[in-house]
Amino acid sequence: MKLLKINVVIAVFFGLLMNMGCRTPETTYHFAEGVDLSFIKKVAVLPLDNLTNDKFASDAVRQLVVSELLLTNIVDVALPGDTVAALDKAGVRSVSAISAEKIKEVGNSLKVQAVILGSVEKYGEMRSGSFTAPEVAITLMMADTASGSILWSVTKTAVGDSFMARHFGARSDTLSELTLKVVRDCIRTLGQY
Amino acid sequence: MSILYNKKDPGMLKNYREKQRFLSFRFVILIALLFVSGGCASNNIKHYLRPNADVNAVRRIAVLPIESLTQDQYAGEKVRRVVITELLSRGVDVIEPGEVTNFLRTLNKPLWSLSREDIKKLGETLNVDAVMMGSVEAYAISSGLTVSYPEVSVNFRLVETSTGAILWSAVNTSGGASFWTRHFGTENISLSETARRVVKEAVDTLPVSYKTNS
User: Fold this and answer.
1) 10 Å Cβ neighbour count for B21?
2) Number of structural domains found in chain A
3) For the segment A154-180, what is each residue's pLDDT rounded down to a tens digit?
4) What's the CATH code of the domain at A86?
5) Which of A15, A161, B7, B178 has the most crowded CB, counting CB atoms within 10 A?
6) Number of Cβ pairs < 8 A linking chain A and chain B
7) Could you give the CA distance from residue A60 to residue A48 in angstroms, rounded to a whole number?
8) A109 to chain B nearest CA, in Å?
9) Above 0.85 for ipTM, yes or no?
10) Most confident of the ranges A81-85, B50-54, B182-186
11) In sequence order, what DSSP letters do the residues of B147-202 get, joined into one string?
12) Chain A positions in Cβ-Cβ contact with residue B173 (cut-off 8 Å)
């Protein structure tokens, strides 16, 4: 009995220790009040702003956003090439400076009810003490092509290590896995509407 | 429970201690199992299949050059070869990659800017029902917390040439080092083997109806 009690105490201690060492990635999202999103049948994913040192970060995340949006079966997605052509036609040089008028123009050209825009803030390895771990941070927004107003926005940051990985060599996420998880979690919030 | 045995009875005490040892042993085994299972990867590829699409109509496919979004500029081309092989092995009619490359040269446009009109034109010129396009997001040996491992991440899309609609889409990524590599230093599979596995798993999600062994 004494031995069992000791084991239980050790287990509780480890549980507490692990809990303290765990970071809970947060997904912060917001829907515009009083807007019904059910009218959105097709969206276009615009090129994302790349705020990282990895020149491929925004393209990699954009590809995942397209795939994950399709997976929801809620909306159809315009071909990325069509989106680029529509932006060219509208004379949009930089997506970070796109105006409401240009969003309307792109929407009309692609026949989409909304466009997804956003940025990649972190994409790579971060150093934490003696360890390195992948870190991904993205922000996505959905803008109505009829009015240019923001209907939904989401932001998420995640780090791919864990207490168990750092101290006991348990499996940790790779950069690709973490990126997929972050994008999936962000897109999943659309279902909260 | 302590009142259930008589301290003066050595036999009963021995039985009780043995029972406790057994319980403790089971407890330790349970913790170890949880630990090991927590360190194992599970792969479940989610793929998209367009609802109500006539996927059976697709008989001939052109595999476009795969975009390389990695530091390895040849990653896309390496993955493209594997995709072609995987499709051919499933009996899918894939046109010669050189024909696709020649057509794209005449278009003189980067891959990421191919519009529906371009894809339609490609379909008519090369007589294909769909094009396979995609990107490689990771193709390298990455460093983990304790070991290095091959990392490959791919994203594929099958686009119908007549409508420009995305019929199928799949994303797959290789996990990090396995439990045995991390803890016991067993040999990891190579980068090209990982790439082949990742592509195969992704192409496996294509509907069975495509797999025409004609």
Assistant:
1) 12
2) 1
3) 999 998 877 777 677 667 788 999 999
4) 3.40.50.10610
5) A161
6) 141
7) 10
8) 13
9) no
10) A81-85
11) -EEEEEEEEEEEEETTT--EEEEEEEE--SS-HHHHHH-PPPPPHHHHHHHHHHHH
12) 174, 176-177, 180
Residue A46 amino acid letter? L
Residues of B in contact with A70 (CB under 8 A): 48, 166, 169
Q: Collapse the DSSP code of A118 into the 3-class scheme (helix H, G, I; strand E, B; otherwise coil) and give the result.
A: strand
A16 within some domain = no
Residue B60 DSSP code: E
Is A117 contained in some domain? yes
CA distance A189 to A178: 17
Of A159, A172, A166, A155, nearest to A126 by C-alpha is: A159
Tokens 């446009």 correspond to B109
Q: What residues does each domain of chain B span?
A: 2-37, 43-210
DSSP string covering B115-135:
-HHHHHHHHHHHT-SEEEEEE
Q: Is residue A10 part of a domain?
A: no
Q: Report the gap between the CA of B93 and the closest CA in chain A (Å).
A: 24
Q: Does A175 touch chain B (CB under 8 A)?
A: yes
Residue A5 is assigned to a structural domain of this protein = no
Instruction: List chain A residues with CB under 8 Å of B169.
Output: 66-67, 70-71
What pTM did the predictor assign?
0.80
* CB-CB under 8 Å, B35 with A81: no
In this structure, chain A runs to a length of 193
Tell me if chain B has a CB within 8 Å of the CB of A70.
yes
Distance CA(A25)–CA(B92), nearest Å, equals: 43
Is residue B153 less than 8 Å (CB to CB) from chain A?
Answer: yes
Tell me the per-residue pLDDT of B66-114, one tens digit each, with 9 for 90 and over: 999 999 999 999 999 999 999 999 888 999 999 999 999 998 888 888 9
Q: How far is B35 from chain A (nearest CA, A)?
A: 8
Q: In whole angstroms, what is the distance from residue A93 CA to residue A95 CA?
A: 7
Amino acid at B176: G
Residue A130 contacts B, CB cutoff 8 Å: no
Domain B43-210 top-level CATH class = alpha beta
Nearest CA among B169, B148, B171, B165 for reference residue B157: B169
**Whether the predicted pLDDT of B210 surpasses 60:** no
